Amino acid sequence: VQLQASGGGLVQAGGSLRLSCAASGRTSSAYAMSWFRQAPGKEREFVATVSWSGAIIRYADSVKGRSTISRDNAKNTVYLQMNSLKPEDTAVYYCAARYGSGSTLRHDYDYWGQGTLVTVSS
Question: What separation in angstroms does the CA of 44 have from each of 17, 41, 57, 59?
């Protein structure tokens, strides 16, 4: 599976962004898709995950209530809508995929996108 993330950019605090991640390749099997992020000098951390069916969704506490993950399997695309952005949301956001159920652990993922930079100014 190849993943291509997009949608990052510069936004003021309180603003919104929608990230997209398009999958290609072996997309006929059920796979969970997730978002992680990595701020400068910090480890990559879990943001959100959605199951193949969309029925199982989990968020990190840091984004819960401000972000919505969704997917369109017909387009092989996962989205992350982020609202009420804060300067601490500044990071490179990566999408990831794994066959089977989702996970909050980055080491469980086999496929990663190239990352898209989100910068939130105060």
Answer: 20, 10, 19, 15
The span from the CA of 73 to the CA of 83, in Å, is 23
Count CB-CB contacts under 10 A for residue 68. 16
Residue 29: helix, strand or coil by DSSP? Answer: coil
Q: pLDDT digit string (tens) for 56-67?
A: 999 999 999 999
The count of residues in the chain is 122
Q: Each residue of 43-56: pLDDT tens digit?
A: 999 999 999 999 99
Backbone angles phi, psi at 17, to 5 degrees: -145, 150
